[in-house]
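Q: Give me a backbone?
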Amino acid sequence: MLEIGCGTGTLTAAIARACKPKRMVINDLSDKMLSAAISRTRRFAPDTGVTPLEADAETTEWPAADVIVSASAAQWFASPLRFVSKAARALPRGGTVALVTYGPQTFKELRGGEPNSYPTLEEWGAEFRKNGFDIKLASKTFETQHFASRTSMLRMMAMSGIGTRLPGQSTANLGGASELTWEVLSLVAVLKPRL
């Protein structure tokens, strides 16, 4: 199993505990995040072998894996849809990708209601099909996060980092806003056998 963008390892540990893979390669840009993820995973699933891969997932080759998972990471790619072709090269036929990322309505409040440049669910689906995948699940949900104050909203944005790469956004557009929208895209796809 390969996880792209493991962060502090919340998903890593949950997968290790539930699926009990023999080996996981976890990727992140930060050695501190990788260390935290390894510690958390060993605490909850001590029998899972965890190998860190400190690298920019968009520019490095991915190791071979039967399953690739990623949550809240692909939107950081300069070209997010590139995630799909990289996954296709790392997986065997019948291999699975489980991806959760953000869609164009995420943080629309920062742009006066206008969408950002993240790919839509339809664009993700088309890219998976173009790269030989059979889509098993494709869903879109909207979540609204409410804040007690603008300061607490800005603090969350700074901690999550998601507010730093959206073109044309400005906290000046927030006015008295006390909520932010997340458009959450979830896809599961299997690489089809060659005919």
